[in-house]
Amino acid sequence: MRWPPGTDVTGYYRSASLADMEADIRALDQEVAGVFVDGAVAYAVAGSRDVIDDQTDEALQQFIGGSTVTHSHPDDDSFSLPDLLFAYGWGLRQLRAVGPMWTYVLDEPHAGWDRFDMSSFLFLAEYRERVLEDDVQGGTIKRDRKWHTFWTRVMGEAEIPYTAALEQGS
Which three-class secondary structure string do you get for 56-116? Predict the structure, then answer.
């Protein structure tokens, strides 16, 4: 299945559980996001191959604070920095990304987003990204695992819960 970017697909996923929606979007060749409030889909939208269009922000505002958001990552890599900024800016309880083989989960910091020092985090992240790129160029880290390696290192230092799990049967 493929939808034009920006398409509201809430109706398609209305009765889906988090696990059901993630199973469905895992192998898509475009990003699709779902906002879960109290375990139910409150809003779902299709994006392009690499991004959920910023035009959906207005629609998300009524649902998103303190919710769980899951979305597909067709390239099977972990979160991008814009993903983290999205979680921070909207005060998400949990951000999830699923690809063909991996599930990535970023939970709200233990102290809460409101006490999180984003400027210090961005300084740390910039430094770690430079070091990581050197590791990729040097061949000690595979490019397709770059972001997972990055988040594993940085989130531990920033005290943000982050996990990655290989899907069963992959």
Answer: HHHHHCCCCCCCEEEEECCCCCCCCHHHHHHHHHHCCCEEEEECCCEEEEEECCCCCHHHC
Ramachandran angles phi, psi of 140, nearest 5°: -85, -15
**In this structure, is the dihedral angle defined by the CA atoms of residues 15, 21, 27 and 28, taken in order, positive or negative?**
positive
Tokens of 6: 């920006």
Predicted structure pTM score: 0.89
What is the H or E stretch that residue 118 is in? helix 118-137
Model pLDDT, residue 58: 67
